[in-house]
Amino acid sequence: MKHALALLSPLALLALTAVADPANPPLTCASTSNPTACAAVKPGPVDPLVIVSGGKDLKFEAELADTEPKRNLGLMYRASMADTHSMIFDMGGPSDTGFWMKDCLISLDMLFLDAKGKVIAIAAQARPGSVRSVAPGFAYNAVLELNGGASKRLGIKVGDQVKHKLFKNIA
Q: Among residues 17, 55, 121, 125, which is most buried (max CB within 10 A)?
């Protein structure tokens, strides 16, 4: 089934990770709205993630949100995120659950993915703080969150392929 590019507005989530690259500043937690939530979150491990788009391999490091608590917190409270960083949400099977941006401080692009990692919808530049529920209107298996505007800047589109250990398509 072919899906048109969907411009939506989603739920964001948090895990703190340090990045030792001056071009990509470290992730930070701006705890002004909920210092307890920020303090309780421990950095998650990252794995390689590649988006195959327009004949190019776009390389990222991805935190995996594969439990209910991790999915619920995700990228909330982050004041910034490195350009090469992302978070991928494993929904545990087909889902039509909406996402929101409550307590998220940065704009995000959300790529809705099928069971094989194919991009089936994109929510571009979701507005920080929004409580509007966002979903593509059909089932998806995972969501990849990137910095807001990354999809447009990098030419990522519906039909592109995400490679990650979640889809068992990356070494």
A: 121
